[in-house]
């Protein structure tokens, strides 16, 4: 992506407001928390303390809006505690410039490493660094610093209390995630009616799995309709694909295909109704004709063979989904045992282990932590040396925009500067025109933060404008004149963005050169999923249900990592000489087809009492070994070779119906391997192997 195009995309996304993602009541509740803390501080203390407490309440409220499946009160308390600790520790070192800069560098490094725990932890940790640089300038003694730290922690406590006292859509995010999974399958069923080979995006199912992970406390309070129902959505997905595919399901033309389309349409209606019921916590409402469809014990006579069996299984699964959404269906008792989320005390050793794992030179998180530490310390020293007030704004801007990948850092840097310019200009006009007092400044600041909470999930530029206006009004409430803040804030924000971009130029961590590694990982994971399914046919009696499931999750994770890598690489100002964009697209298409082969075969896995298919075991073993070697060849820029896999397929033995079906799946797998090799050779400039 060119720089100009990146600027256009940033402006378009930063200014767009998606009404469907707005949560007005939640935004009002968060702003009310800030208002309560400011009012109490003004009543009991001074405007300076009120400004300090407002930063804490604002940051704690911001933490509750992050995309996390932990309870919002826990997020608010954790953010408030972290901010209070960073403020107090920072003040203890603030009187000595060298000591404070060293502390700032260490704190910023740890904040960067917090990304190993996820985006929410990384963003909240960055807030603690930013607040450390701002709030340490307000107290005048250790006692005052302790008081400021306590009022900051109070901000988190107030936000958590408001969430508990005024709950809005309990378990709403989890409901939406599970409903989105069923809605995605409904859309998939409709696409299959027109295109039997339509692709399926597993992201809603992956999100639903993340949302299903709960702490023991949450597991005891989770609504019945959210317990164990995700497994039904997972089982419906391959059955839909198998019914629509002409190779293993309904015939390509004729009455059988017409009947399959009717079943898919009815399935889409049922899945949409289940999604609505889960989202709004209401019973499932189905049209009469669809109810009749679910009551049929078996499909009509137009379907024969495997298509008839798959259709019967689909009807059974849909009926179970309707019953489960109504709270009367079976639940997966093992789901909560496998998806328990650790509590905060138990998270500490896990966090330490995750950080140790990322402490390596090639880790994107480690390199981000090094960049963040260097930029925070350097920016603070530059800001202190410049003849400007509020020099901490430069490193604060850098810390808040920097991300482990270049594309987000660049987009947020541009958006932050534009939003800052707009927000400061508007707030300055208000300050000049109205000359508001302390209480009016506080009220206007609360309005700005309410707008920021409302819009922060849509347009970053718009939200940043609200934050900038909030900061100007808050500092005005604390006694700073607008002439001290406006020009300096704009100039130092620009300086902070330049420092962040310079850090990437000096110490880059481009995703583009690692595309081959990501492609090799996806090849191994996708082929491993197909091999696991084949092994299920090889020895049904010894098959573990978790084996195929774990392989599928690995394949999905590798696919998501690949998609993220490609998106980041497209936004980077570098190009990969060994893997063209067209080659990456072709390889992605082929690997998606490879995963589809495994999905189709998974829908036909036999019971434990079925006869084994010995040839499937040999094919799966050789497939794993050959793919491991070929993945290394992809990393080295060499063409993969599939001779061993082809030899096993040529020697396949067995002529029963199941063996022929499994062999057909192996043939489809072989076709995708050949297409993968062709995609890399024809588009990447790889030389073919010598004869």
UniProtKB/TrEMBL annotation:
<feature type="transmembrane region" description="Helical">
    <location>
        <begin position="145"/>
        <end position="166"/>
    </location>
</feature>
<feature type="transmembrane region" description="Helical">
    <location>
        <begin position="97"/>
        <end position="115"/>
    </location>
</feature>
<dbReference type="InterPro" id="IPR049453">
    <property type="entry name" value="Memb_transporter_dom"/>
</dbReference>
<feature type="transmembrane region" description="Helical">
    <location>
        <begin position="413"/>
        <end position="430"/>
    </location>
</feature>
<comment type="similarity">
    <text>Belongs to the YccS/YhfK family.</text>
</comment>
<keyword id="KW-1133">Transmembrane helix</keyword>
<keyword id="KW-0812">Transmembrane</keyword>
<protein>
    <submittedName>
        <fullName>FUSC family protein</fullName>
    </submittedName>
</protein>
<feature type="transmembrane region" description="Helical">
    <location>
        <begin position="21"/>
        <end position="42"/>
    </location>
</feature>
<feature type="transmembrane region" description="Helical">
    <location>
        <begin position="369"/>
        <end position="393"/>
    </location>
</feature>
<dbReference type="Pfam" id="PF13515">
    <property type="entry name" value="FUSC_2"/>
</dbReference>
<feature type="domain" description="Integral membrane bound transporter">
    <location>
        <begin position="380"/>
        <end position="502"/>
    </location>
</feature>
<feature type="transmembrane region" description="Helical">
    <location>
        <begin position="437"/>
        <end position="455"/>
    </location>
</feature>
<keyword id="KW-0472">Membrane</keyword>
<feature type="transmembrane region" description="Helical">
    <location>
        <begin position="122"/>
        <end position="139"/>
    </location>
</feature>
<keyword id="KW-1003">Cell membrane</keyword>
<feature type="transmembrane region" description="Helical">
    <location>
        <begin position="461"/>
        <end position="480"/>
    </location>
</feature>
<feature type="transmembrane region" description="Helical">
    <location>
        <begin position="492"/>
        <end position="510"/>
    </location>
</feature>
